[in-house]
Specification:
Butyryl-Coa Dehydrogenase, subunit A, domain 1; 12 helices; Butyryl-CoA Dehydrogenase, subunit A, domain 2; binds flavin-adenine dinucleotide; 3 domains; alpha+beta; Butyryl-CoA Dehydrogenase, subunit A, domain 3
């Protein structure tokens, strides 16, 4: 197990710093001029993703043997934080591929990794992760999508709800029940490719925020999946794949919350420096300064928790899931609070589409809902406390 001191060192390798500068440059050039239009018209960010791809950034989290740059979770954290400062929707559209890839990365066979991780890393394939169902959101163990073995195929039936990149993605990792008698332990994960017979999509959901990322149902009607597309080729391991995926992706969601909060904070400071009331710029009022101080402090807390959770996840630490839940909970609530204060500091102008804080405020809310609501993160943290405290003297 890693030493505590190693787990608190957040130094970034210089080559990752350089990648960060490149990501920021692309965001300034490609996202800023387009984000209001993409939001208004729900345009999927194909052009922006193409620019990341041209710059060799699509493979940021994937291992080198599959064509990635091998930065792993550090790469996801860096990407999510910077891109979400500019547009959480773009980050969600990009990161849904990584989310779809994680069950394969954690549990796939060598052949599955070669085919799909290389496809994602090269930017040729867009991915999606299908766990949630209309009647199984927080209550994942109650999911009912079924996968029945028939000869050399599995026949999938069911509906997945709120799936990011549904309809856009080339590859879907879909969780379904292979052995009902085992309850949630009878769940498996399948790789379903676009064009598979019996796979279709619901309507584009009309969302209040992250509107450039597309969300639809995934509908499986006698969908025939070849047995070689069962992740890891072993049935009934889906619960572990889902748990490993969410534990390792939550720090990246926390990073996106930190990024959104930084973006909203910067907008608030910029505005407060130039908005004049009572004969001075509003940044000179102590009440405004205190709001900014609170925002900056909360961001710093959330950022440190996020980096620490990422370190624990990368080290495979036994408490990684707890720290991931804490970071996701703290950072997402921070993003909502900071976006709210940033809008408040814009007064009436913040309530219009003339300033980016209006969009940031709408976008922020999803952070406390997807990949486990704040209540579910607290349940997870509390479960750890109950377990750990049983051995306290
Ligand atoms: C825009 C968007 C994109 C998404 N993308 C994906 C995706 O790509 N893939 C995917 O699989 N899913 C995705 N989701 C689904 C998302 O993860 C779920 O919406 C989320 O887990 C909550 O489930 P639910 O919406 O069914 O809410 P519910 O589970 O019905 O929760 C309703 C309320 O009850 C509370 N609650 C429920 N159970 C408990 C409990 N035990 N204790 C305390 N409070 C509780 C919740 O916190 C919440 O406040 C997405 C959702 C959205 C909105």
């Amino acid at each position: 197990m890693s030493k505590h001191s190693d787990l608190l060192d957040f130094t970034m390798p210089p080559e990752l710093e350089e990648v960060g500068a490149l990501i920021r440059e692309i965001c300034e050039k490609e996202i800023v001029p387009r984000r209001a239009d993409m939001d208004e018209h729900e345009k999927f960010p194909y052009e922006v993703l193409a620019k990341f791809n041209e710059a060799g950034i699509s493979g940021i989290m994937y291992p080198e043997e599959y064509g990635g740059t091998g930065f792993g979770l550090s790469g996801s954290i860096l990407f999510s934080e910077i891109v979400s400062e500019y547009c959480l929707g773009v980050n969600t559209a990009f990161s849904a591929t990584s989310l779809g890839a994680l069950p394969i990365q954690h549990g796939g066979t060598e052949d599955q990794k070669k085919k799909y991780l290389s496809g994602f890393a090269s930017g040729k394939m867009i991915g999606a992760f299908g766990l949630t169902e209309p009647n199984a959101g927080s209550d994942v163990p109650s999911l009912s999508t079924s996968a029945e073995k028939k000869g050399d195929r599995y026949i999938l039936n069911g509906t997945k709800q709120w799936i990011t990149n549904s309809g856009v993605a080339d590859v879907y990792t879909i969780f379904a029940i292979t052995d009902k008698s085992k309850g949630p332990r009878g769940m498996s994960c399948f790789i379903v490719e676009k064009g598979t017979k019996g796979l279709s999509y619901g309507k584009l959901e009309q969302k209040m925020g992250i509107r450039c990322s597309h969300t639809r149902q995934v509908i499986l009607e006698d969908c025939e999946v070849p047995e070689e597309n069962l992740v890891g080729l072993k049935p009934n391991r889906g619960f572990i794949h889902a748990f490993q995926t969410l534990s390792s992706s939550r720090p990246a969601v926390a990073a996106s919350a930190v990024g959104l909060a930084i973006g909203a904070f910067k907008e608030a400071v910029k505005y407060a420096r130039q908005r004049e009331q009572f004969g001075k710029n509003i940044i000179n009022f102590q009440a405004v300064q205190h709001m900014l101080a609170d925002m900056a402090t909360r961001i710093e807390q959330a950022r440190l928790m996020t980096y620490r959770a990422a370190k624990y996840a990368m080290a495979g630490h036994s408490e990684a899931a707890k720290y991931s839940a804490m970071a996701k909970y703290a950072a997402s609530e921070t993003a909502v609070a900071v976006a709210n204060d940033a809008l408040q500091l814009h007064g009436g102008y913040g309530f219009t589409k003339d300033y980016p804080v209006e969009k940031m405020y709408r976008d922020a809310k999803i952070l406390t809902i997807y990949e486990g609501t704040s209540q579910i993160q607290k349940n997870e943290i509390a479960a750890h406390i109950v377990k750990e405290s049983a051995t306290w003297k």
